[in-house]
Design a protein that fits this description.
oxidoreductase activity, acting on paired donors, with incorporation or reduction of molecular oxygen, monooxygenase activity, eight-stranded parallel β-barrel, alpha/beta, single chain, 46% helix, two-stranded antiparallel sheet
Length: 342
Amino acid sequence: MNFGMFTDFHVRADMSQAEAFEESFSQVAEVEQMGMDSVWLAEHHFTPDRSVLASPLIIASAIAARTSTLRVGLAVQVLPLTNPLRVAEEAATVDHISKGRFDFGIGRSGLTKYYQGYNIPYSESRGRFFEALQVIMKAWKGGSFSHQGDFYSYDDVQVVPQPFQQPYPPTRIAVASEDTFPIVGKLGHPIFISATTGIPVLKERLKLYRTARQEAGFEWPGEVTLRIPAYVAETTAKAQADPKNSAIHAIQYAATELIKTAASEEGVERLRRMANIPYEEILRQRVMFGTPAEVTERLEEYRDELDISGVVLETNYGGQIPNDRVMASVRMLTENVVPRFK
C-alpha cells in the first residue's frame, strides 16, 4: 500500500506566510527521511488565514528539486480554473524535473469561492473539467493537434515538453458524487475517494466505478486511493486529544465557507448540522486518530472492504496542530504502522 502525506501548506495565527512555507518544506524533507512514499499538495485561493498553497505545480517543482525518492502529487489541481494547455506544459515540466516522480491529481473542488474569485460560473465546473482533461490528454499524445470545444479552442498547437513518464504521469481524479464514479470509470483513470463518506456507501459507488471501468476495457479493479485525516500517538486518549481543536476547526471552517455559497436552503441546513457535529461522531466517521494498533486495524478495514491501493493522510487536519506534534505522529506512523502494509 502506498502511504502519502497530504499538506495544505497551512498558516496558523502565530506564523507569517514565510514561516508557513519554511515549516511545510521542512515537513516534506522529514517525511522523505522517515520513508513515506509520497506527498500530496492541495490548492487553495483567497484564504490567507488557511493556506499559502495557491500554486501547487510550482510547489511540486520545488519539492521535486529538493527530494530524491519521494513522489510528489497534486490532491488536487482544480482543473476548471486553469488553461488546460498551460497545465499540460507545466505538469510535463514537473514530471521532467522530478524524473518521473510526479502524480497528476485533478478535481473540481466544492468551494465555489474559488470560482467566484476567478470569475468562472460554478455551474460550468463539470463541463470545463472534462473538456480540460480531454485537451490535456490530446496534448500529451505528442505532435500537433487542434481542439474546438464549448470552453477551449486551439488550432494546430504542439505541447513542449512531453511528459517524462510515458504515455503520461499517473492521472488521478477526485470523485465524490454518485454519478461521477461511473463517468470516471469509463475513462479508466485511478481515483481519490474521501473517508467523509461511510464504507457501505463507498462500496456501492466503487462498484459503479469498477463495473464501468471493466466494461470500457480496463483492468479490474483500478487504483483507488483513500484520503483521510490521521493522527497517531502512544495512547488513545492522547491521539484523540492532541488534534481535537484542529479537527473541530476544520469541520466548522468548511461548513462556514460552504454555507456562504450553498445552492439551497436544504444545503444550508445540512451544513449547519455539520458545523455542530459532536467530536465523538467525528472520531467515528471522519478521521483515523488512535494508537498504532488502532490505526492499523482501521486501515486493514478500509483495505479489505474497499480494496484500496493507497492512502493520502491529512496529518494536520485543520492546520492547527503544532509542528512538533505533527511530526511525532508521522514518525510513529512510519515506524509502527506503515511496515505492516509493505
